[in-house]
Structure formats: structure tokens, C-alpha cells
Design goal:
Layout lengths: L2 E8 L8 E6 L12 H5 L9 H10 L6 E5 L9 H9 L4 E6 L4 H9 L5 E5 L7 H5 L7 H12 L3 E8 L6 H10 L6 E5 L16 H9 L8 E4 L3
Parallel strand pairs: 2-3, 3-4, 4-5, 5-6, 6-7, 7-8
Antiparallel strand pairs: 1-2
Length: 231
């Protein structure tokens, strides 16, 4: 697998870092609200960015860019993810991995390598509504639950995050999620943005007042809970 998307400069993808984001084509989820429709539905048609050009770029940007975010699609599907992370790490960058948590064995391997600095893992919904939310009704959330436990018991810095939509999330779901991720260092509730790049789209973001109420439910359950994208 190759990287198929690249945002060369981002102030949003890696908090407190001037970053660059690389995107993998292909995902094992089909979340209808996903913004990367082309990467998820038609990875075979996605452009391929030459690895040599990526390395050359980052060699020249040392001291200007602080971190690299590896996202997707789902990056843990990339067979050579670890050697590519190693090559970027050896250039002196901090590395953030975005993941849906569906491949806990790969996630553990990457964490155990000590080559990444931060993990951002999506919590799509409560376990009882997971399949519905990711577009695969028969999906069992057990691999995601394993990844949650891995992060909670480990020593790598991380966050959990949920993109809020009126159609998928309610107070009951939030209360189930808070029990699931209890003890996490940080949790973000993100504002959904509908656009033409969504796989299905047409959903509605939770109003800020409701999002703030959901956020209050996590008091005492996670160390830090914040809204993202509601400013």
C-alpha cells in the first residue's frame, strides 16, 4: 500500500504541533459520514505518492515541521507501516497515528516499537450501535474493545474521539461510551461537517448546547474532555 493523500502543512491534525499529514487509501469500515470517500470506496483508483518524494520532502523540512500525522483510510492496514514510520522517525519527527482500532495486534506492534508519540483513536459509538455507525451492521466491536483496553493499560500518550451526529448519538450512547473509556487521559467530541466528500452525507451535527451536555456526562470519567470544531 502507498500513501494516497498528503496535507503538507496542518495546524489541526496534531494538537500543539506544526504538522504534515499522510493518508492511506483503504479502510475496513464504511462509515457513511466519512470525509475520505475516494480513499475508502475506491482505494485502487487512488493516486500513489512516491515514497522517495515523501522522504525527500521531510528531509528538507526538518526544523520547520514538528510532527507527522499518519491517517487514512485506516493506516494499520498498510503492510509496511512500521518500516515507514521508522524511516520518518529517524528523520527526527514526532509521529501521531490515527486509527479506528480495528486491528489491535498491529496497534500493539506499533506502540511496542516505541516509534510513535501519540495515538488518536476513534470511538464511533457505543458498542451496541457500532455496526450501525460504521456501515457494517454485522460488525462485532470486540477488536475495538481490545484496542481501547490496550491504550488504557499502556503508557503511550493518546486520545479518544467521537464525531457527533444527531442520527447516531444520544445520551444513552454517551453514557455507554463513558463507561467504556473510563480513565482515559482525554476525550474529544467533534462537530460533524457535511460535505460532498462524505460517503453518504446528509447527516446533522449535534448543536453546541447538546454537545456541551454530552461533554458534562464525562466529568469524573476522563481526565480531560473537550469539544473540537465547535468554536
Amino acid at each position: 500500500m502507498d500513501f494516497s493523500g498528503w496535507e503538507k502543512l496542518s495546524l489541526l491534525d496534531y494538537d500543539k504541533h506544526i504538522a504534515s499529514s499522510l493518508f492511506v487509501a483503504g479502510c475496513d469500515f464504511i462509515c457513511p459520514y466519512c470525509h475520505n470517500k475516494s480513499l475508502v470506496l475506491h482505494p485502487e483508483n487512488a493516486p500513489k505518492i512516491a515514497w522517495d518524494s515523501i522522504l525527500s520532502y521531510f528531509q528538507k523540512r526538518k526544523g520547520m515541521i514538528e510532527g507527522i500525522c499518519i491517517s487514512g483510510g485506516e493506516p494499520t492496514l498498510m503492510p509496511d507501516l512500521l518500516p515507514k514510520i521508522k524511516a520518518l522517525k529517524e528523520l527526527g519527527y514526532e509521529i501521531k497515528l490515527d486509527t479506528n482500532g480495528s486491528r489491535p495486534k498491529v496497534l500493539k506492534e506499533v506502540i511496542d516499537s516505541r516509534l510513535i508519540n501519540y495515538v488518536a483513536m476513534d470511538i464511533k459509538n457505543s458498542p451496541s450501535r457500532y455496526g450501525e455507525t460504521i456501515g457494517i451492521p454485522s460488525f462485532s466491536p470486540e477488536p475495538v474493545e481490545e484496542s481501547v483496553k490496550l491504550l488504557l493499560k499502556g503508557d503511550i500518550d493518546f486520545e479518544f474521539r467521537t464525531t457527533l451526529m444527531e442520527e447516531y448519538h444520544d445520551e444513552k450512547a454517551m453514557k455507554e461510551i463513558r463507561e467504556w473509556i473510563k480513565g482515559a487521559p482525554r476525550y474529544f467530541l467533534q462537530r460533524y461537517i457535511d460535505n460532498e466528500n462524505c460517503i453518504v452525507g446528509g447527516f446533522h451535527f449535534a448543536p453546541k448546547e447538546k454537545a456541551e451536555h454530552y461533554l458534562s456526562l464525562f466529568d469524573g470519567y476522563v481526565k480531560e474532555a473537550k469539544l473540537r470544531g465547535y468554536d
